[in-house]
Inverse folding.
């Protein structure tokens, strides 16, 4: 359900800040060089960006135990517990895909970060960091809606955080409101990089935004002086959804409790994942696992269990990882309010 495009993940160091930028369609930026592994660096450590990184999952402490070694010498640059940006939890094995290291921080390929615990006092805000917790997308947005994109049009190049981006506007036919004012149609601005089809490229890292006509999305927006704009520049924090709403779903949840909105969004994501391609491959289903956990925690257990019979070993393994996280935290689920017009109830999370 989610499309990839040619892009490269590059860590850009500037004075006083270590920020992440996505640059699209750049050839020659992928390094094939692999240094000789020093004797003091374990075989399980992964080499990226001039360092070796090794992280394990410690569910009891809800953190990752990580050690970063300097390539060439094996010198330990950083060692200790790390937590995922925004989520305050450990990254799962499936999420531990490293991109770079700098400023005490491990950068992951999906643009999230692993911060040391406790955070260093010199830690500074980093722009364009993909939200670590799905709920952070709601907190950074003035309006959260789902709907079908009717059209999208380029409007030229704009400077955003000192980077030239290709700006476009899209018109959406809203079918559900999860946060903000009730609205039926709106036009919003979004950004991406220009990509020449002749230059080729490769994918590594978080995808940029990509809205396609006649597809249904969950969209996060904020209001600025020009109108509605995506809540986060460039990165695709929108979620492509199933073409139709869940049966009997409430359309306006703008005045519902935050927990009820979380549950409604999780229901959308779980239905979408169930329709994703599965036979013989992971498909797209696993990309919804972390989002479901962030929103409803232990109540996502039946969702994960539904993938234990998948033909994909990788997908079964991912589902088991999330079930183990729920079990290790002793998370349970109890019946809550209904999100549909019928009698079916959506569960509520509790922690023992």
């Amino acid at each position: 359900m989610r499309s990839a495009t040619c892009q490269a993940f590059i860590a850009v160091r500037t004075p006083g800040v270590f920020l992440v930028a996505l640059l699209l369609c750049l050839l020659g930026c992928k390094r094939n060089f692999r240094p000789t592994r020093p004797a003091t660096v374990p075989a399980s450590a992964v080499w990226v960006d001039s360092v070796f990184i090794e992280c394990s999952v410690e569910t009891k402490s809800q953190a990752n135990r990580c050690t970063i070694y300097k390539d060439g010498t094996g010198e330990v640059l950083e060692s200790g517990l790390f937590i995922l940006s925004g989520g305050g939890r450990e990254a799962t094995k499936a999420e531990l895909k490293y991109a770079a290291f700098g400023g005490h921080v491990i950068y992951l390929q999906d643009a999230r970060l692993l911060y040391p615990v406790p955070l260093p006092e010199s830690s500074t805000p980093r722009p364009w960091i993909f939200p670590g917790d799905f709920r952070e997308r709601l907190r950074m947005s003035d309006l959260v809606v789902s709907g079908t994109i009717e059209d999208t049009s380029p409007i030229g190049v704009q400077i955003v955080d000192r980077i030239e981006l290709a700006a476009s506007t899209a018109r959406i036919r809203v079918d559900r409101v999860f946060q903000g004012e009730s609205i039926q149609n709106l036009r919003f601005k979004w950004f991406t990089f220009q990509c020449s089809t002749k230059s080729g490229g490769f994918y590594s890292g978080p995808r940029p935004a990509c809205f396609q006509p006649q597809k249904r999305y969950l969209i996060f927006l904020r209001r600025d002086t020009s109108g509605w704009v995506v809540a986060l520049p460039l990165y695709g924090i929108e979620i492509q959804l199933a073409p139709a709403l869940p049966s009997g779903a409430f359309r306006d949840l703008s005045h519902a409790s935050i927990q009820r909105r979380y549950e409604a969004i999780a229901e959308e994501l779980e239905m979408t994942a169930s329709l994703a391609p599965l036979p013989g491959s992971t498909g797209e289903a696993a990309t919804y696992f972390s989002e479901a956990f962030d929103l409803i925690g232990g109540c996502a257990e039946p969702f994960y269990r539904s993938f234990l019979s998948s033909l994909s070993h990788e997908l079964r393994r991912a589902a088991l990882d999330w079930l183990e996280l729920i079990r290790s935290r002793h998370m349970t689920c109890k019946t809550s309010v209904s999100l549909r017009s019928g009698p079916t109830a959506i569960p509520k999370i509790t922690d023992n």
